[in-house]
């Protein structure tokens, strides 16, 4: 039984009051922000001198942040909190980069601010010191070659891998044979990324964790599907085909009642696996999606061989039906133990579930049912979602890429609905993990639920268990991706409530112990460069043999990751609007003051 003397909300408010700061008037905030940006710019100019004279490299196992990095954090979050500046930044960068003499200055500014804040390094090998530093701090890594479709080129006509305005070279591991195909380059580099992740884990040799075989590994790899084919519009075409095919579903079927983008079915892949035709796809579209699925299958096979987990990132709703279908097919194929294998990592493939989508509770319930029915391990990355303003705007515009047939937009209109949705799914997943742990330990014969079990649970009806075989390896794995303090606190609370962790004191806030059977199935993730104090708070309260918290660390040359940096800035604009920007700036400023003045 939980023994918290304070209510959960009260505890978070008392410990972190800045997150509940309502903020001054827009005029006051505007004047204050201009002053902070100007001051931060002056600090940046002198940070090299300060860092060299005041900060000495720590001999501790876990090095603390340098003054230079603290100043950078202060400056970056000051700029991210100015909406008009964020919105205009692509045009500003383009204009400045076209002026001789300003181009190099612009590149240097982006590299030493946003790039260094949110990107690990230019190449996979160059990120290794960061990976070691994070592991020394008891943090794992979700590793990603972060090349994305540009926001302004979301139709997929081209992938913004390079620009006339930036001169960085692509990864040195891409062969000359791949130079004419950006999508093939990305596939090649992703395979290399898996090798680097596996070699890094092998090099640890229990230095920072009691890793046995492939268990306890905490260097995973994320993939962005739209970057892996020459024309991302083919994914929209496949998604349109999938949505059209659902019109034939019986209205009484579970899938028919799930809001757009719906719930994936294996039949969604018929155009790929069974050579079916569709008026929604051209021969070129079919060729593209078939090659994409083959490339993803090659990546997953290599990951399974190396014992590296693959996280399939979510994207805009017009891509998502196709991505969901491919992820389902890959899970069914690769999220099963190899014959006669010992210490097999499961699940290998994780799909991303976005809680700002109205469909998510029912979609997740159906996914749990499908994994149990077809005997594969379900991998879930649970997030709120990154494209909310774009989704609302696209749904209301007739000329947009939206393919939703629903009257309501696919996303919740209010953030409070997304928050409720996320927390509801946290509880659903904690319950599913509990059942899986009990089944693996032989404490329960619950092999699944009846046909309506998990969907009924979402709707408030008690699930009816059925007898099944005891699982030898995890049949579910969950990565909770969140920068929300309340959600992190809820996750810890649910672990304790379900018997997946035990309190290390009289209260949850005193810390909890998480056993190997749980940490093999559950992790919390945050983006590199964001909410490090939240990350440290969770790490300090979890006792486990392997890292429980994972940081998403992208890498790539500056020209390659510009779309990623643009999206990060846009996301930060919305995330930091409720007092979080003030909190991040204050945290950096207070640490700088402490270092300089003692």
TrEMBL record:
Domain Proline dehydrogenase: start-end pairs: 218-575
Gene3D superfamilies from the UniProt entry: 3.20.20.220
InterPro entries per UniProt: FAD-linked_oxidoreductase-like, Proline_DH_dom, Proline_oxidase
Region (Disordered): 156-181
Swiss-Prot/TrEMBL cofactor(s): FAD
Alphabetically ordered keywords of this record: FAD, Flavoprotein, Oxidoreductase, Proline metabolism
One Gene Ontology molecular-function label: proline dehydrogenase activity
Catalytic reaction list: L-proline + a quinone = (S)-1-pyrroline-5-carboxylate + a quinol + H(+)
EC number of this enzyme: 1.5.5.2
Top-level enzyme category: oxidoreductase
GO biological process, one term: L-proline catabolic process to L-glutamate
A GO cellular component annotation in the UniProt record: mitochondrion
Keyword Cell membrane: no
Top-level taxonomic group: Eukaryota
The family this protein is said to belong to: Belongs to the proline oxidase family.
Function: Converts proline to delta-1-pyrroline-5-carboxylate.
Name used for this protein in its record: Proline dehydrogenase
Species per Swiss-Prot/TrEMBL record: Pholiota conissans
């Amino acid at each position: 039984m939980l023994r918290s003397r304070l209510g959960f909300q009260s505890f978070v408010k008392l410990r972190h009051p800045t997150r509940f700061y309502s903020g001054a008037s827009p005029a006051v905030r505007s004047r204050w922000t201009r002053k902070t940006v100007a001051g931060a710019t002056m600090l940046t100019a002198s940070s090299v001198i300060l860092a060299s004279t005041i900060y000495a490299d720590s001999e501790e196992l876990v090095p603390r942040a340098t003054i230079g990095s603290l100043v950078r954090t202060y400056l970056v979050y000051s700029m991210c909190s100015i909406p008009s500046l964020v919105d205009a930044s692509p045009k500003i960068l383009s204009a400045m980069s076209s002026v001789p003499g300003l181009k190099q200055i612009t590149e240097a500014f982006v590299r030493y601010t946003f790039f260094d804040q949110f990107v690990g390094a230019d190449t996979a090998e160059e990120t290794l010191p960061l990976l070691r530093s994070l592991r020394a701090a008891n943090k794992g890594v979700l590793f990603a070659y972060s090349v994305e479709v540009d926001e302004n080129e979301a139709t997929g006509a081209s992938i913004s891998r390079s620009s006339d305005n930036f001169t960085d070279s692509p990864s040195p591991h891409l062969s000359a044979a791949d130079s004419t195909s950006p999508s093939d380059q990305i596939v090649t580099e992703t395979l290399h990324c898996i090798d680097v992740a596996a070699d890094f884990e092998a090099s640890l040799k229990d230095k920072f964790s009691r890793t046995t075989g492939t268990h306890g590994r905490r260097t995973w790899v994320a993939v962005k599907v739209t970057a892996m084919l020459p024309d991302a519009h083919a994914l929209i075409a496949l998604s349109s085909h999938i949505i059209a095919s659902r019109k034939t579903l019986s209205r009484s079927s579970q899938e028919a009642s799930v809001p757009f983008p719906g719930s994936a079915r294996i039949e969604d892949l018929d155009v790929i696996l069974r050579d079916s035709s569709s008026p929604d796809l051209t021969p070129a579209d079919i060729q593209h999606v078939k090659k994409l699925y083959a490339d993803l299958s090659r990546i997953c096979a290599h990951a399974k061989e190396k014992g590296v987990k693959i996280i399939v990132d979510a994207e805009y709703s017009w891509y998502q039906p196709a991505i969901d279908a491919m992820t389902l097919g890959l899970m069914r194929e690769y999220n099963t133990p190899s014959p006669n294998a010992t210490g097999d990592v499961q699940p290998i493939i994780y799909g991303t579930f976005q809680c700002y989508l109205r469909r998510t509770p029912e979609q997740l319930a159906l996914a749990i049912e499908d994994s149990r029915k077809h005997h594969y391990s379900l991998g879930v990355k649970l997030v709120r979602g990154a494209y909310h303003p774009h989704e609302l705007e696209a749904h209301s515009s007739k000329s947009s890429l939206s393919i939703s047939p629903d009257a309501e937009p696919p996303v919740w209109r209010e953030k409070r609905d997304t928050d409720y949705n996320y927390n509801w799914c946290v509880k659903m997943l904690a319950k599913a993990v509990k059942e899986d742990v009990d089944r693996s330990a032989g404490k329960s014969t619950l092999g699944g639920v009846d046909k309506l079990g998990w969907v009924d649970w979402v709707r408030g009806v008690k699930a009816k268990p059925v007898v099944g075989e005891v699982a030898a390896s995890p049949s579910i794995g969950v990565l909770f991706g969140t920068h929300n303090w309340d959600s992190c606190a809820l996750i810890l609370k649910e672990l304790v409530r379900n018997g997946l962790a035990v309190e290390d004191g009289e209260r949850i806030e005193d810390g909890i112990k998480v056993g190997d059977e749980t940490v093999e199935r559950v992790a919390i993730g945050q983006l590199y460069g964001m909410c490090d104090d939240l990350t440290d708070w969770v790490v300090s309260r979890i006792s486990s043999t392997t890292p429980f918290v994972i940081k998403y660390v992208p890498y790539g040359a500056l020209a390659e990751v510009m779309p990623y940096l643009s999206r990060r800035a846009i996301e930060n604009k919305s995330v930091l609007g409720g007092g979080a920007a003030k909190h991040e700036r204050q945290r950096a400023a207070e640490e700088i003051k402490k270092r300089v003045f003692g």
